[in-house]
Amino acid sequence: MRKLILALGAILVSAAAPPATDWSKTAIRSADGAIIVGNPKAAKTLVEFASYTCGHCAEFSVEAASELDQQIAAGKVRLEFRHALRDPVDLAAAMIARCAGPTKFHAASKAIFAAQGNWMGKAQSYVSANQKAIAAATPDKARLMVAKGSGLLALAAPFGVTEAKGAACLADTAEQNLLIAQTNDAWQTRKIPGTPYFVINGVPAEANVWPALRTALAKP
């Protein structure tokens, strides 16, 4: 009888304490195309301007990944990712990452940054070896060629981006124009000094490396 009572008590305690929300699974796309991940009521909103062909952006992504993800999951930080494109390969990478959809974008983006040293080298070699074919192709076909030749498409496969889906995303003119507009907003309107660049609760951050940014996010 005592064991039965204890078992029932454990069940009641478990039922009374539902699991905490994992806010990293909450993601939306803003009207101007930014991908926003996390708790809408988070104490801190971190806006990140980044480029997939930016070495420092990749370093930040890898260094911050674990701790920042924990803060997002716990509902303490909401991350707004904005693209500040630098070149055509960057555009292809952005379109592939976004092809995963808002809820998988953050994970796809981290995977692309983590493998930057690999796919960027392949992209340069592929473009160098296939200049005439790329120049003769339509822009969307050229992007698909580079995405496949660099390995970007393969990197996005675990996040639901098949070759057919990737090809459709890379041919999306509206998405391309949106990313160009977002880039112009970053460089020309907001005049960001470089990438990565961060804004915390509307205030530009002085930091662009994780240890200093972690300290800035921890301030009341």
Q: Could you please describe the fold and organization of this structure?
A:
The protein is of the alpha+beta class. It has one domain (23-218): Glutaredoxin, CATH 3.40.30.10. The protein has helices at 2-16, 55-73, 88-99, 102-114, 116-129, 131-136, 139-150, 152-156, 163-170, 173-189, 210-218, and strands spanning 27-29, 35-37, 44-50, 77-83, 197-200, 203-204. A six-stranded mixed β-sheet has the order 1-2-4-3-5-6. α2 packs across α4 (102-114). It is globular and about 55 Å long. Residues 4-15 have low confidence and may be disordered.
Largest sheet: 6 strands, mixed
Strand content: 5-15%
H/E element string?
A: HEEEHEHHHHHHHHEEH
Oligomer state of the chains in this structure: single chain
Number of helices: 11
What's the number of structural domains? 1
CATH architecture: 3-Layer(aba) Sandwich
From the 3D structure, determine the CATH topology.
Glutaredoxin
Structural class, by secondary structure, is alpha+beta
Please report the distance between the alpha carbons of the first and last residues.
51 Å
Unreliable runs, pLDDT <50, ≥5 residues?
A: 4-15
User: What's the overall average pLDDT, rounded?
Assistant: 92
Summarize the structure.
The protein is of the alpha+beta class and 220 residues long.
Core attributes:
11 helices, 59% helix, 12% strand, Glutaredoxin, alpha+beta, 6 strands
List the helices and strands and how they pair.
Layout: H1 2-16, E1 27-29, E2 35-37, E3 44-50, H2 55-73, E4 77-83, H3 88-99, H4 102-114, H5 116-129, H6 131-136, H7 139-150, H8 152-156, H9 163-170, H10 173-189, E5 197-200, E6 203-204, H11 210-218
Parallel strand pairs: 3-4
Antiparallel strand pairs: 1-2, 2-4, 3-5, 5-6
Helix pairs in contact: 2-4, 3-4, 3-7, 3-9, 5-7
